[in-house]
Design a protein that fits this description.
mainly alpha; 2 domains
Length: 343
Amino acid sequence: MIVIIYEAMMSDIRSPVSWNNKYNLRLLRLWLFIQIVLLFFLFFTFSLVLLHFYVNGDQIVYRIFYNQISGLDFFEAYLLAKSIISASEPVSIFILWLGSSLGIDKDIYISAWNAVLLLLFWRFCEKSHVKPFVFFLIVLNFYMLVLLTGAERLKFGYIFILFVPFLSNQIKVFGFLIAGLAHFQMLLILPSIFIASQYNEISRAIRYGLISKPLLYFLLLSITFSSFLFLGFSDALSYKFASYFDNTKNIYSLINVILLTVAALLATSNWKRMLFSITPFYVLIIMLGGERVNMIAVTIVLWLLISERRIGHPVSLALLGYFLLKSFGFMYRTVLFGDAFSN
């Protein structure tokens, strides 16, 4: 697993042109490998400690499911997932089934995947010149802790989304496809990713009425990708939509997204792109509400601020400080009750 991550992370170092000679490139590769190994075990240990305490809530049914699918074939495990953990995403079910079939302790197996998640995020932050203390502020924020613990399947969606930048442009869409099949909630993030990544092309198309080939290519792939998911998993998606729908939390969630938007616009270097990227979440809040949409909105905002190298802006740091404070309550309830969302 470490070797796969290492090769992916080295793929963006195209050639040794910027280095004095091949010897320096070898040193770079060696140094990167040492960093990956050390960070992997640091993140792995951190996750293992968290999961040692996080034993209640959703983890009860996930542990039951993980133990019961040992010895089953994948199709049997897939059917069982629908009844025990209400899951239909084949990628995440396959990952859990693989670990159980190999007889790996659940906490150890999930901690390895958590380490992969944090490693990919670390590399993304490093490429964007995020300072180490800011990186750890993000790692220790409320939503990251949710991904490492209670969000058992959602973390796999984030892992594949973070892997997309290391793929060639021709196959990036398949990375998004796998992320969507790891957790259907990743579908909520795609409109904003599309707007943010294609903002210049979209602006040019609106201004001049001309669609460039890259934008047209991206649109066709997105439509094909969406059609495949909706046609292949329409029942599961309908069930997810119904389970997320919650009018009682819409107002609270809307206020949170408005405050997030204000903070993002104050910190960003491109307020138009930021505003248009956040806009889809207002529709999602009205339709779905709840903490899940807030989590995806925060993800998009942090991704854009990191990409713009504005994560060190005072407003960005204040936002991270707020989520760090929320993580203290998360840790307290986890240690005390074994579940961060226990009342």
